[in-house]
Amino acid sequence: MRAVQLICILLFFSSCSKDSSENLPCNKTQSGLNGTVNCITLIGNKTLVAAGMNNSAGAVSQSTDNGLTWNLLPTVFEYPVTAIFTVDSLIWYAGSSEPSVYKTTDGGKSWKKLWVRTPFPPQFRQPVRSISATNDTTIFFALGGGFEAGGIWKTYDGGTTWSAFAFNFEIRDLRFSNPLTGIACGYGSVICTSDGGESWQPSPCPNAYFMALNQDENGRWWAVSFNGGVYFSDNPALGWKISLAPSNLLSSRKQFRCLLIQGRKITVAGSEGIIMKSNIYDHNWTTFQSCLKDHLRCMSYSESEWFAGGDHGTIISFNGF
Fold it and tell me: Does residue 143 lie in a domain region?
């Protein structure tokens, strides 16, 4: 009886205290993929690239009209594409769930598989989650899976010479602010480098499942967690502070998977189409329900519009923030 009463009390407070949300007007477009859209990025001149799963394999799709229409590129990857990075309009890198890494020098028309020739324990060979670079040829691939296995692959020359690090935690995102300084985040951990990725040190951080990070115009780092939290740090070597407290039983916020900073605006998104926004200066967050109630896994920005990729090959666009 007491258990029933407790459940009723929790349901009552949940119905009274859940985060309120506004409906966010947006447009839906099919990317050409029929599975998850794992990544989307802007090349320039209204050209965007999206990648993910198509017919249980991997594929890349391109839009040259700022997301109005999308066309699949010809290459079919053996496994779903989980990350993509564009150096310029012709040179791109991609990573898959296998994991494998690929490079194109003709804007996605053809791809070459890169062989990571460095010792690396098999149990740490997890999906490529993020790709970053410090210059045109020094590229980093972050790997993670199973919560307790991750790694960072680094090529010094565009795919010929490699080094690798293995970690006992899943890595979800990796970014560099300059050729020497970078941060990676993942399951319960944030790590930093100050020597261009030759070594990595732990950053004091909350015990959270970090999914994505980014840096604003003032040099402040931001990170989101799977349990609906947003964190920031002016010096990751010293620790992190909370901008938005993680979700709890009385919150309707869903798991965050991606983060985008455009000027002073910071936008985070996650499951069931939930999107939240704030100004990087005030930590006042507004919740929106998008027109796509799927998991939103990635975001990009072009020509005053935000783009987010979800399940079933759908990409939404929205503005007016």
Answer: yes
What Å distances lie between residue 141 and 128, 158, 163, 164, CA to CA?
6, 12, 11, 9
Residue 287, number of CB atoms within 10 A of its CB: 18
- pLDDT-derived band at 22 (thresholds 50, 70, 90) equals confident
Distance, CA of 94 to CA of 84 (rounded, Å):
4
Q: Using the 8-state DSSP alphabet, how is residue 30 labeled? A: E
Question: What is the residue range of 226's domain?
Answer: 21-318
* Token pair of 25 as six digits: 């007007």
pTM: 0.91
Give the count of beta carbons closer than 10 Å to the beta carbon of residue 278.
Answer: 19
> What is the structure's pLDDT at 253?
64
Report if residue 133 sits inside a domain: yes
Q: Can you list the alpha helix ranges (DSSP code H) found in the chain? A: 2-17
